[in-house]
Amino acid sequence: MRKFVKGNEAVVIGALYAGCDVYFGYPITPASEIAEDSAAWFPQMGKEFLQAECETASINMIYGAASAGRLAMTASSGPGISLMQEGISYLAGAQLPALIVNVMRTGPGLGNIGPEQGDYNQAVKGGGHGNYHSIVLAPASVQEMCDLTMKAFEMAFKYRNPAMILADATLGQVMESLKLPEHEAQRPKTSDWSVQGDLTTKRNLISSIFLEPDKMEIHNRHLQEKYAAMQHEAIAESYLTSDADIILTGYGTSARVARSAVDHLRASGVKAGLFRPISLMPFPIEQLNKAAAGKKVLVVEMSNGQYMNDVILYLDRKRPSLVRLCNRMGGVLIQVDDVTKAANDLVKEAF
């Protein structure tokens, strides 16, 4: 069965198929449809929806629900996600699974409601205090807004860690055909760690505080081992990279534009390919190097090079690559012509 829906609506559909129990959040453009649709659908299905008084309250409500083993989610955009950072750090420190959706808008500050990807560092590097990471998945279509929401819940509970869907204003608002999932996800078992006020979970404890430095270090090392173990879950897509002389790379909406640019370049005789990371944390390091190491690489993004910095970081230094940036900011959607021109310029550059 198919539906013609916005990306924001697809997130809610994916959450319901994942078995999400509760939604706590506060509306903000361009993510407001997630709250609106959750308000309409969650109560109809016997689930809980609550509009919190602010984003800080909503993320702490998520902490409480996750502690009880509930599948909990919230959604916002840049300014709201900034307010949630302490709570996200608490979720990571207490090893609690939850889903946060960021439909990125421009910044810094209030910015505007146009599409941008300036929250990459905030999402992928942690954002809040301490040595932690969130799982971060980056959809590039309405279909993936649904499918990766389900995947994010799955990974969050597998690793007991907060997960984030990192989208942008274009993906939140665009309408496309969505193939509905064939069945609901299997509900995760939580009785071995959650606190549900019953005999089974009586001895479980939810906390992120370790007053003795040695024990706090042990906890931090455990978290780092968990993040390292996630690496085999890294997801990426390669398009026409096997014989490519130049690799375009981007995520989300930028990857869609870059893929069209690849087709245009191929039509003009330039052997171009696309590498698209789908998981940003864990980052698909092995897949990136298989596609791009030792080649000319054009990074396409709607930020100041935050994603490019990771591309440079993870490319194999034993196989030097020439990396350049093609970007727009401020809510200006990057165009195919921008990318093809930058690619053609890079093709001519000495390497």
Q: Into how many domains do the coordinates divide?
A: 2
CATH superfamily of the largest domain: Thiamin diphosphate (ThDP)-binding fold, Pyr/PP domains
CATH architecture of the largest domain: 3-Layer(aba) Sandwich
What is the CATH domain class of the largest domain? Answer: Alpha Beta
Beta-strand content bin: 15-25%
Can you summarize this structure?
By secondary structure, this protein is an alpha/beta fold. It is 40% helix and 20% strand. It has helices at residues 7-18, 32-41, 55-67, 78-83, 85-93, 120-124, 142-159, 169-173, 213-229, 253-267, 285-292, 306-314, 336-348, and strands spanning 2-6, 22-25, 48-51, 72-76, 98-104, 135-137, 162-168, 175-179, 236-239, 246-249, 272-277, 279-281, 296-301, 322-327.
What descriptors fit this protein?
single chain, 351 residues, alpha/beta, Rossmann fold, 2 domains, seven-stranded mixed β-sheet, five-stranded mixed β-sheet, 13 helices, 40% helix, globular
